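A quick word before the example. In earlier lectures we treated sequence and structure as two separate objects. From today on, think of them as two lines of the same record. Here is Penicillin-binding protein E written that way.
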Amino acid sequence: MKSCLILLACCLLTGTKPLMSQNFSSVDEIMKQYEGEVPGASLMIIKDGKKILTRSYGYANLEKKERVSSRHNFRLASVTKQFTATAILQLVHRGKLSLQHKLTEIFPGFPAYGKVITVQHLLTHTSGIADYEDYVSDTAMHPQIMDKGVLDIVMKLDTVYFAPGEKYRYSNTAYALLALMVEKYSGLGFDDYLQKNIFRPLGMKQSLAFVPGDNEVKYRAYGYTQKDGRWKLKDQSSTSAVLGDGGIYSSVEDLYKWDQSLYLDKILPTELKQAAFSYHRLNNGDTVHYGFGWHLKKSPKGQQVIYHTGSTSSFRNIIYRIPAENTTIIILTNRNFPVEEDMVGLAERILIAV
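And the structure line, produced from the sequence above:
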């Protein structure tokens, strides 16, 4: 009782609201579309290192009537890219490769256009390299294409969309190639590398890059697509087995540990983290609103936001960070809408509500 009175007095003096008294009903109202016997969502809001709100909505598995919890692991889709980029930056820090290494130096026999495409071009989506998805049929499920298959595709091409550094064009191909570099320069499989160098050191015990037959996703949330008013299980696509661009599964509980590590130097030294969170430039000096594995923008209040959305077959996700406020929101969902860009608006509506 005494501690509660002290907390209340401090809040009155500082003009802040005690977290225990906050009414989060407005958040539940925003998230009501995920509640009920429908594919759901896992939500966490972090402030000053504290989990001020953890909410679960709907179902992780409709067939088994398994409700979503904060420990459920969702396919992160492109939220994966920050982990792929971190693995590359770790190898740069260890002197295994550099940001200026060219594709022709890394992959023997790579086409001539790779002579001017660097690791940094790949990280910032300014390489101009072709989208591998254009060469994979939606029905190519047995087997699904993997990262090595992406390399096989681009090895057969002789053109790019534009000269490296001339434009920004989001590229899943780039991050599949980066995952292969992690394997080449570490001597480990991509998931093994992440386990040894990121997940285990941070205590992210359930996170993994999913390789069917090699590992298992515990507490797995399955993806669903709505068609003609009904939900249909559609957890995988022909490109879901590619790891570097979107193959990691994780939970809000594990991503909390990841988020907190980004304030420290445990996984990456400060200078490389700053590079990952920095705007980059095109050849003509125009700004690229993308760091290494992170989108960059200003919040409605004008503060720097470091974020990434993820969209794949029946998953929509976002991690949205405002470092100046020590604030992060994580939303993981297992359905095929809204469009990926609308996850930014959803995160911002929730942050305004709290």
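Notice the following. Residues 1-21 have pLDDT under 50 and may be disordered. We will return to this example when we discuss secondary structure assignment.
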